[in-house]
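Table S2 (continued). Query chain:
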Amino acid sequence: MRIHRYADTALSAATRTELAAYRYDVFVGRLGWDLPCRPGCDQDQFDKADAVHLVARSEEGRVIGYARLLPTEGSYLLGELFPQLLSGHQPPRDAQVWELSRYAAMDIVQQGLPGASAADLLVGKQLLLQAIRTAAQSGARRLIFCTTVAIERLAMRWGVDIQRLGAPLRSEGQLLVAAMIEFSDKTFEALAPASQAGHPHPAPLPFACSTLQLAAA
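Corresponding output:
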């Protein structure tokens, strides 16, 4: 498994189409979300110039995980579409706070095969670690995101330093929460591979693609 990082402005048309199709397959096809997008293509107003896309690929090259990062100084999903999850508090506008959205770890081809769920969990854990490292490289100290209670509980089981930002609300049959992950020793130790035990803040892993220049906000 390799994790690639792309500035939104550096995405080729083919890669953008590939990621939009993967997001549609996961969030609409598998999870049943009612997203305002055309069939086979999940793109929204937050796929913008200051977005950073993280893409996990299998050894064969297919997409098996994805996450989008946005600084909160501009518009972002939680602040624009789900502020009610903050229980009356203002959405953060802070250079040290970035948003994680469309976070997914699912190998569509391998779904239902033995070991697929465990493999997806491993991808999800490493993808979250790389999201934190990427945001930290740009000065962030925490991630916020809108997620389901199930994902919140998974992060807690991993040992991530996570806290709710408001009361949970039910939407389309799912219980949603706003949560924040602190870039603490606890978080890095919880997500770091066993080979990095004892080194909670290792140097960022080299990314597999050449598009490392991030777009300016």
